Hints:
The chain has 15 helices and 29 strands. By secondary structure, the protein is an alpha+beta fold. The chain folds into three domains: 5-141 and 183-256, 7-stranded beta/alpha barrel (Alpha-Beta Barrel), CATH 3.20.110.20; 278-356; 415-628, Distorted Sandwich (Beta-galactosidase, Chain A, domain 5), CATH 2.70.98.10. The strands form five sheets. Strands 15, 18, 19, 20, 21, 22, 23, 24, 25, 26, 27, 28 and 29 form a 13-stranded antiparallel sheet that branches. Helix 10 crosses helix 11 (285-302), helix 11 runs antiparallel to helix 12 and helix 12 (308-319) packs antiparallel against helix 14 (335-353). It is elongated, with a radius of gyration of 29 Å. The model is unreliable at 267-272 and 537-542 (pLDDT under 50).
Amino acid sequence: MSEKVYFILGIHNHLPNGTPEDEFEALYNSSIRPLVSALYQYPRIHVVFHYSGVLMHWIERRHPELFVLIEDLLNRRQVELLGGGFYEPIMALLPPGDRIGQIEMLTTYIRRQFGKRPQGLRLPAHSWEQNIVGHLAACGMNYTFLDESYFEEAYAGKKGEFSYEPCITEDQGKIITVFPVYTSLAGKKPGAMLEQLRLLINNKILCEGPVTVFPDFANNPGEKAEIEYRHFFEELSAADSNIEFTTPGRIFKNLSGLKKLYFTACGSSKDSSSPSPRQFLTEYPEAESLYAKMIHTRVLINHLKGDKSRKQTALEEMWKAQDSVLFSPQGLGNVPVRKAAYRALLEAEKITRRNGSFKSSLSIFDYDLDGEDEYVFLDEKLNSYIKARGALLVEFDYLPKSWNFIDTFIPGKNYELKKSRRGIFSEYLFPGNDLPEANWHGINGARYNGNEVFQNIKMDRGQKQVQFLLPADDSKPLGHIEIKKTWHLKRNAIFLQYVLKNTGSNTEDFFLIPSLDFAFSGGDESFVKFYGFAADSGTASTPGTSSASSTAIDPAVDVQIHKDLSALEFRDLKNESVLSLESVKPFTAKIFKVVFDSKYQFTTIMPILKITLESGKSWDTGFTLKISS
């Protein structure tokens, strides 16, 4: 190998906010500590470290001794620390203020801990949109890194020009340098890496210049990790003398004559089948809901005036919910991390309210950014978001515990399961007199109204009441049945009234089966306790009263049926809260515990009511959802 090659070896580690303590400890013991210890013994190997702010803050609290080693490596100029967003966000999905705020938060942290300001940053998932250039430059970032596939795409159509070299890119007059990252080398052993480099040079794909690789060290076993890292660094140390291990900060100032390239927004690695972050939002409604909540919370924070400290506190709380892992299938399905994100968003919202007493309200706006307005009930303790499509609750927040009871998740794309948005009080109509065979994701042979657009026929802001109508439609099963749903916000409770009218000429026998999805803190008795309250022949019982006849329901059982109930009560032990569902008319309940990959996701409750409705007649009932601590 005759050409000089500058080898930039990058190390990245991150765990998202909400990750259990033992997972932080496992990562530290199996990867972070042994790698730093091994590197200390090989002065020829220079490395650029990127640790997220979440991880660095944990290390500071639990293992501050590691910072002493890192500081020594920094003083030896053997290591460079990269900046980025403190909570490892997808920069392309953030409002400009959040991009700058998160970068500056991590920059300030690194400067405070180590006395050095980072010159460059790493972008999570290599996600990119050209308009982030100005914000990166505004934060003093001189360079960043993108997957090699971005460079291949940027050179498409420029025959004979392609090369793996740093470049500059620009937006609105702002410039930043971009280093290509050789993702295809990341999983290779040192010898294979060096051999691949020789091939690139011989084929004139790689000219004299820096080569950047972020190896994947995630699978090193804990007790052997340091030995394996030593072998790795030892083999690299024995490499050809024409390979110089360096850091981007040491060679950045000497780069000149760089080509200018523009990169396609949110391109993905050629070795990855994962969708881009924005495409991910369209494929996973759970991610879309979280993103919409983040955007809405940002609007609330923007309305804070005159209290910079409170505004900054709310922003930093919200930033915890912007982690890049939430926009990947694996991360979105990580229950503790997803719950922590919603908790952070609700905590931020609560901070915006700390200015005297809060007045309950009903408003209408496109909350979830789907082009259709939602009806938003806000109370001192409850947030209730209702969609006209299905006239159902799609978010139900209990603010004292910062908990969204409709934070459900179905892993994978599962289009058939995801086509009906999860929520509270989407209903099925099932014909006949025999109790239907139901499942949590549907009832064969039933008419499902959750995807039907209800008409808003009344809205009373003063009474905090909104009424929807689904007209009769003879083209559908039980299409003669007209459905009217009236939502009414009460103190710490929300009430739903059903009125069903038979517009046909014949008597109809059928079942009304609302579906309610609740995300509790867990799926067994250590997290939640269920109680069913028997209907009295005269007066319906209510939860929590001594006269009510209650029966404990085992939440660990996957499917249960309970007949002749007036109410259900759910005691969330972790959140120390009680949620009750009370009914005007007796009902039979089917309860399903929904589990994927041995992980509890949510519980579906289906109250079943038998109805015989004559021509021209109406039938009504009502349900109340209450929450208390």
